[in-house]
């Protein structure tokens, strides 16, 4: 299971909606294994397929960062089907390493997806899990957390990233 390169903010693959997964093939299973290993190595709590350059509607989440084997969630063709409340908390992204901002998300979220056995399921998350579910489904829709910031905050963050990148100071993404 190779660790894949995580693409950074500015790569066009991150800002395009992903294609639905047509079926659970050996290639999809291998991609999921690679994504899980990449997410843990980074380390992160979630990873969308387009973050490793694959424009498919597929994400993995583990808010325990590998501490609880039962916490791993594989989401194929996920859709947010319900949400309520609101929370504002600091959020980061493996594709925007070294930068965080406060982002508003739902306090509760319900996502419908398919698992690796091809069976549809729903997952309900509150708090941090709701944040992760919404963050990853946003990725699959071609949105990053920076798109949820006000114009001024987004502009300032983008300017800081460009300056750091031009100076060769932007933190590298694993590997």
Quick structural gist:
By secondary structure, the protein is an alpha+beta fold. The chain contains three helices and seven strands, in the order αβββββββαα.
Strand order of the biggest β-sheet:
1-2-3-6-7
Q: Remind me, CATH topology?
A: Peptide Deformylase
How many helices? The count is 3
Mean pLDDT: 93
Structural class of the helix and strand makeup? alpha+beta
* Percent in helix: 25-40%
Q: Indicate the overall shape.
A: globular
- The CATH superfamily is known as Peptide deformylase
Over all CA atoms, what is the radius of gyration? 16 Å
Q: Main sheet?
A: 5 strands, antiparallel
The top-level CATH class is Alpha Beta
Can you tell me the residue ranges where pLDDT is under 50 for at least 5 consecutive residues? none
Order of helices and strands: HEEEEEEEHH
CATH architecture: Alpha-Beta Complex
In terms of DSSP E residues, the strand content is 15-25%
The structural domain count equals 1
For the record, give the distance between the C-alpha atoms at the N and C termini, rounded to a whole number. 13 Å
Total strands: the figure is 7
